[in-house]
Amino acid sequence: MASLSIPGIEDPDEIGLSAPVCRTVTPGGDVLLLVPGDSAAARAAAHAQDDDVAAVMEITDVAPVSVPHRIRGRAWIAGWLTPVRNEQRAEAAMLLAERHPVGELLGIGEALQPEPAPGMYGRAAWMMLRLEVGEGAVDDLWGAEPVEPDDFAAAVPDPLVAHEAELLQHLHSAHSEEVRGLCALLGDREAVCGPGDPAVPVSLDRFGLRVRFTDADQRSFDARFDFPDPVGDVAELRRAMHRLFEAAGAR
What we know:
The protein is built from 7 helices and 11 strands. It has helices at 40-48, 88-99, 103-106, 149-154, 164-174, 176-181, 234-249, and strands at 2-5, 17-18, 22-25, 31-36, 53-62, 71-83, 126-140, 143-147, 199-205, 208-214, 220-226. The strands form 2 sheets. Strands 1, 2, 3, 4, 5, 6, 7 and 8 form an 8-stranded antiparallel β-sheet that branches. It has a 3-stranded antiparallel β-sheet with strand order 9-10-11. Strand 5 (53-62) and strand 6 (71-83) form a beta hairpin.
């Protein structure tokens, strides 16, 4: 879930907040955004002409399973917003469409036309914007820290990111007993995990699994279970999970 705010908009009819329909990161580290043509972000960028518009994008990461305190983290990216123009529009549209296959339904195809198609109130129905990253910050399950633009540009998606939601839901619905059994690997904390207490997988990446345990007094804590080696795909994940469950069952 992402929102884009434009500081300095004081008109009461302008909330200064836009929700991008889709977004992606270019190889150079800029963020491409597809927003409605009548949104505050589109209007601000269009009216600025050659001037950059300061903007802040906030991304909220919500666990895809039902669990108390579902927000896993937030990230903020501050920078300068400009419309994607001229010959760059086709390249940006194709990058968005490649990473968001339903792009035609979202209006990405419109950006491939020589001129934006007319939309509501005489504006294009959709506009592509580019956010040049100036600074960033992350506050999540692993801690809070700033993110430099070069580090942001160099980062690559986790190989499980496209499958994490369905994998966590599958673990929770089909393997809840095995997930609860991981409590056996917690050493001294094993005593606070009762046999009937909830244990919900809340995050999964190439390095391991995080589970939220809740005791009889409704007190929760997270435990991280690292894989012996980072996994590169779902097949390797299955093997890593089996090894994790086997290790817990052997205790």
